[in-house]
Structures are given as structure tokens and as C-alpha cells.
Write a structure and sequence with these properties.
The structure holds two protein chains of two kinds. By secondary structure, chain A is mainly alpha-helical. Chain A has helices at residues 4-26, 34-41, 49-81, 93-112, 117-141, 145-169, 176-183, 191-210, 212-218, 222-227, 232-254, 260-272, 277-301, 310-334. Chain A is built from 14 helices and no strands. Chain B is of the alpha/beta class. Chain B has one domain: P-loop containing nucleotide triphosphate hydrolases (Rossmann fold). Chain B contains ten helices and ten strands. In chain B, strands 6-7-8-3-9-10 form a six-stranded mixed β-sheet, sandwiched between helices. A four-stranded antiparallel β-sheet of chain B has the order 2-1-4-5, covered by helices on one side. Classes of the chains: A mainly alpha, B alpha/beta. Chains A and B meet through helix 9 and helix 10 of A and helix 2 and strand 6 of B.
Chain lengths: 336, 251
């Protein structure tokens, strides 16, 4: 039995998602007429084909897939820490991934030339796991959720500072892209990359979806979950690896993107008025897709031809949501 | 026929190497209620945690349904034994009914979807603890007494043979204490569940228990049926209360 509200919200999300995708493809620095647009999409060669298929389509798909991945990664981390303001960016996971990718890029540039996509993902994943490991160590010492986030943010700053330092002094022409990438952007993604991203995100998404049942028990706290027969250690490990994989994919291809991981699950929970993982996992993914596609559209059109970094836009819309959550929680605690 | 559901023999419990309580022995049959009483920090919770499988026993034996606890898998255990704990849960956006539904966890398929039969069991559990009035409310919005009934209904949904409760009535007012214990009593008698719980309310413990264990400084100082245990001498001894003070407050 599916609640009516859930069904309606899913239909709305799907519609908005398709609409945003089309808007993303249609808008840009070059005006394309609607007939050319449709013709190019259906495979006919015309003046719009190249712009559309080589630039806009991969970019929109990158925002769609990676945005969803970010929101899902945030949801998994929030579940893990029982903390609504946990997310790959505030916990320093994105920045850790960024640092390791930057280091790998710089050191391999001299030896192998530019880095393959797979190597980027692997180094981003290693970076994610190192910073998550650090956050886990801290979380055993400090039980307070706000302190955990402060530690995460500080870790993020340290990693970013080291990355900036490396970028500034690295003068190899092979890492020209590094600067753009380290600011966060969905541009410059090729169709080859999209295939890899799709595969990666799909596997992690299915993995997360299969965990819906144990996650629902885990939400009642570890003791009750254990009493229901959940293997807590296995579940916790799976949550960490999956969220690490998802945020690694994002960092490898788009650089660090802020606040999507916290803001989207919160908004989705409010819209669906439920926290059931079976609903939350697909809905967060869709919400993240929409959020990132809209933000990317703003990033490239508002001050065109100058582009904003994606994090600039996501922060403007995402950070206020975090403040609202913190305020609500304070009130909730006072009410007992 | 031996209808003992859970028993302990020469049981020592604790954390790591540190023994908190030792020499724990008892057996609980179908439909019986065993109550653990004793001062704070005597080791009651540690005993309950070990029985529920949260802590590994240090030595001795725990036998559940004529099987040693070590041989029972987590999944089997979830169908045999359920708990009501002292820790407070704060799930977001979950109705009381949804909390109760999580009790079906060990029986549902890989996505945790409830079957028609599961829903009936949930419905019965809701009736058993009379929470029909607030079943659809958010768990965060109901009173402590109501929450405790929700947690009990959740435990019932697991269809356990054994129910373990750690100070289930501590935060409740007298009306809700009586209501809760009455539900528990009926549950034990009708469903033949073995109940083990810890309690600080001696007057209620005396009325509800079939058997009482007094735990003091990590040992069973006394055990037996309520009529033997609840004498003023025993209580003064167990809780270190002087005769003068005892009579001032209880006499």
C-alpha cells in the first residue's frame, strides 16, 4: 500500500525532473530555435547538434547523475551519524577526496600525462575514505553532533588549503584544468565520462536501495536494530563505503559541491512527510538531480558568459536550509 | 513437560574482563514474570543486556528454549526475544504505528514490506496496548506513557517467547504505571510469554511478579516468591535503609 501523498510527490518530482532537464538543454549562450533543438535531439545533423550533443547533453546528465549521487551520499551519512546536518561536504569528505585527486593529478602529470577517469575515481575514493576514517575517529571521542560537524568543516578547510597550495605552485600545463575543477563545475564532462558515472552511480544506488530495510531498523537506534536481528557492523560498513563511493564519483568529475547532501534530504523529508528509506532513497536522488540541474543552469546563465562555480550557487540555496534545520532542532530539544 | 523458556546457571556478566555481577541463577517458565530488584548500579541492567544478547556473557550458561544462547543466530534470536529499553529513541517523522510496524522486521522480506498477515498482527498489538487513539500521531508528539506503550507494542509484534524490559515504568505516573503493568500481566498469561524485567517500584513488583531476584553489589542476595521477599527486614537489608528511616517512610 503506497500512501497517496507519496505517489503524488513522486509524480511531481518526475515531471519537474524532466522539465529541468529540457530547460538545461535548451538554455545557454547560443540561442537555438525550438525546431532545431528537437531535430538535433532526435538525431538529425544541424547547426545545433554539436553544441547540444557535445556540450549541453553531457553537462546536464552530469548534473543529473552527480546531483542525485550527492544527495544520496548525504542521506546515507545522516543515517549513519543519526545527524541531520551530516553530509559529504560538511564532514570534509569532499575536500579530502579533492586533495588526494589533486595530489595524484600533479604527481602523475609528469609521469603518465593526464589522468584517466578511473584513476580519478579511485583517488577520490581513497581520499573520501581517509577523511571519513578521520571523522569516525573523532566521532568516537566527541558524542556531540555539532562538534562532529565543526571537526568536519575544519578538516575540510585544511584539505582545501593544502589543495590550493598545490594548485598554486603546480605549473605543469597538464594540470591547467585542475584550477577549474577544484572550484567545482559540471562543465567539461565527456560522453565517455557520463557512461562511467552512470555505471558507478547505478551500482551505488542499487546497493543503497537494497539496504532500505536494515536502515529502517537502524533509525530506531542501534540497540533496537540489533534486537531485530540487524548485523550492525556490516550495515555501518556498507553505509560508509556506499556514501564514500557516491561522493567520490562527484568529486572526481565535478569537484567539491557544497550543501546539496544536507539540503536535499531535508527538503525531501518535508515534502514527503516521511523518513522511510524505501521512499527517501529514490526521492533524495531525484531531488538532488533537480537541485543540481537548476543550480548549474543558474551558474552558467545568470552572469553569462562568465560562469559561477557550482558550489557558489548550491551554497546560496543550500546553506540557509542548514541554518533552518539547526534552529528547528534547538526548538525541538527545548520541547523535550 | 518442561516449559522453561529461559534459564541461567552460574552466570557472570560484565564488560570485557570486569565482572559486574556473578552467580546469577534462575529459570522462567511460560507465562511467568521474573523481576530484578536492587539498588542502582547493582548490575541489573548488565544482567538484562547479557540475556538480550547485547553483551557477551563472561562465564556460566544462558539457555533459551533449550538451546545455548551462543548457538542461536541473530535472526533466530530476533524471533525469540524482544526488548523494551531505557534509551530514548528520537526517530524523525515516524508515526507511532510505523514504530510498531518495525517489530515485524524479522519476519518481512528483503524490502521490509508488510503482508496482510503482518498488518493484522500490528493491529492486534495496537489493540493489546490500547493505543488506537494515538496510533497515527507522530512518535515525537506523544507522552512518555504513550511512548512506552508503543515500544511494548513494537516488542509484541516481534512475537517473542521472551520479553525483556529494563525499568519499563520508571518515567510513568501512577496511572500509566498501573496501566502498563496490567497490559504486561495479561500478555504473560494469555500469550504465555516469559517476562524478565528490572524495577524500582517495590509495591508494584510485589504484586506483579511470580518470582523475584534481589541483586546487591553484583550478587543475588536473595531470591524467591514475592511473599517471601517483600518483608521489611529484607528490603532494609537490600537497600541499606536503617530501621528508623524505613518506618518513617514506609511504616
Amino acid at each position: 500500500m503506497i500512501k497517496k501523498r507519496t505517489a503524488v510527490m513522486f509524480i511531481i518530482l518526475t515531471a519537474v525532473m524532466i522539465l529541468t532537464l529540457f530547460m538545461n538543454l535548451f538554455t545557454g549562450s547560443t540561442d537555438i530555435s525550438f525546431s532545431d533543438f528537437m531535430a538535433a535531439l532526435s538525431g538529425k545533423e544541424n547547426s545545433a547538434s554539436d553544441i547540444l550533443l557535445k556540450i549541453r547533453v553531457p553537462r546536464a546528465l552530469a548534473a543529473l547523475l552527480l546531483g542525485g549521487a550527492l544527495a544520496l551520499s548525504g542521506y546515507l551519512l545522516q543515517t549513519f551519524f543519526h545527524n541531520p546536518i551530516a553530509g559529504p561536504f560538511v564532514l570534509g569528505v569532499s575536500s579530502g577526496a579533492k586533495l588526494v585527486v589533486a595530489v595524484t593529478m600533479i604527481f602523475s602529470a609528469g609521469i603518465f600525462g593526464s589522468l584517466s577517469s578511473a584513476a580519478m575515481i579511485v583517488s577520490a575514493f581513497v581520499g573520501s575514505m581517509i577523511s571519513l576514517g578521520f571523522v569516525l575517529l573523532v566521532s568516537q571521542k566527541v558524542k556531540q553532533m555539532s562538534m562532529l560537524v565543526v571537526c568536519g568543516v575544519m578538516t575540510g578547510y585544511i584539505c582545501s588549503a593544502v589543495t590550493d597550495f598545490l594548485v598554486t605552485f603546480a605549473d605543469d600545463t597538464n594540470i591547467v584544468n585542475l584550477h577549474d575543477w577544484s572550484m567545482g563545475t559540471f562543465s567539461g564532462t565527456s560522453m565517455e565520462n557520463i557512461k562511467l558515472i552512470f555505471l558507478f552511480v547505478l551500482v551505488s544506488f542499487i546497493g543503497s536501495f537494497l539496504l532500505s530495510k536494515p536502515i529502517s531498523a537502524y533509525m530506531l537506534g542501534e540497540s533496537y536494530a540489533k534486537n531485530m536481528g540487524v548485523n550492525i557492523k556490516l550495515l555501518r560498513a556498507a553505509l560508509i563505503v556506499l556514501s564514500g563511493l557516491l561522493s567520490a564519483a562527484v568529486t572526481a568529475f565535478a569537484g567539491p559541491v557544497s550543501f546539496v547532501g544536507i539540503a536535499v534530504p531535508h527538503i525531501i523529508r518535508g515534502l514527503f512527510r516521511t523518513s522511510k528509506p524505501l521512499v527517501m532513497i529514490p526521492a533524495c536522488f531525484m531531488g538532488g538531480s533537480i537541485f543540481c540541474m537548476l543550480c548549474d543552469m543558474i551558474a552558467r546563465t545568470v552572469f553569462a558568459p562568465t560562469e559561477l562555480s557550482i558550489s557558489t550557487v548550491t551554497a546560496i540555496f543550500g546553506a540557509p536550509v542548514v541554518i533552518i534545520i539547526m534552529l528547528n532542532r534547538k526548538r525541538g530539544e527545548m520541547n523535550g | 513437560m518442561d516449559n522453561t523458556l529461559i534459564s541461567a546457571e552460574k552466570l557472570s556478566v560484565g564488560y570485557g574482563r570486569k565482572i559486574i555481577a556473578e552467580g546469577i541463577e534462575f529459570e522462567v517458565k511460560q507465562g511467568e514474570i521474573l523481576t530484578l530488584i536492587g539498588p542502582n548500579g547493582a548490575g541489573k541492567s548488565t544482567v538484562l543486556k547479557t540475556l538480550a544478547g547485547y553483551l557477551k556473557k563472561l562465564s556460566g550458561d544462558i539457555v533459551i528454549d533449550s538451546e545455548n544462547i551462543e548457538k542461536i543466530s541473530e535472526k533466530e534470536m530476533a524471533k525469540k526475544l524482544s526488548v523494551v529499553l531505557t534509551e530514548r529513541i528520537r526517530p524523525e517523522l515516524m508515526s507511532c504505528r510505523e514504530i510498531v510496524e518495525t517489530g515485524r522486521y524479522p519476519y518481512t522480506g528483503s524490502f521490509g514490506l508488510l503482508s496482510e498477515a503482518d498488518r493484522e498482527i500490528v493491529e492486534k498489538a495496537i489493540e493489546t496496548v490500547s493505543m488506537e487513539d494515538f496510533a497515527e500521531k507522530d512518535f515525537g508528539a506523544v507522552s512518555d506513557g504513550q511512548r512506552q506503550r508503543v515500544m511494548l507494542a513494537r516488542a509484541i509484534c516481534q512475537e517473542p517467547d521472551i520479553l525483556i524490559l529494563d525499568e519499563p515504568t520508571s518515567y510513568l505516573d501512577i496511572h500509566h504505571k498501573i496501566q502498563f503493568l496490567e497490559i504486561l500481566r495479561n500478555l504473560a498469561k494469555e500469550k504465555l510469554i516469559a517476562v524478565i524485567m528490572s524495577m524500582h517500584e517495590l509495591d508494584f513488583a510485589e504484586k506483579i511478579s511470580d518470582y523475584v531476584l534481589c541483586i546487591k553489589s553484583g550478587k543475588i542476595s536473595l531470591s524467591g516468591t514475592p511473599d517471601k521477599i517483600f518483608t521489611s527486614e529484607n528490603i532494609m537489608e537490600l537497600y541499606d535503609i536503617s530501621e528508623k528511616l524505613y518506618h518513617k517512610y514506609f511504616g
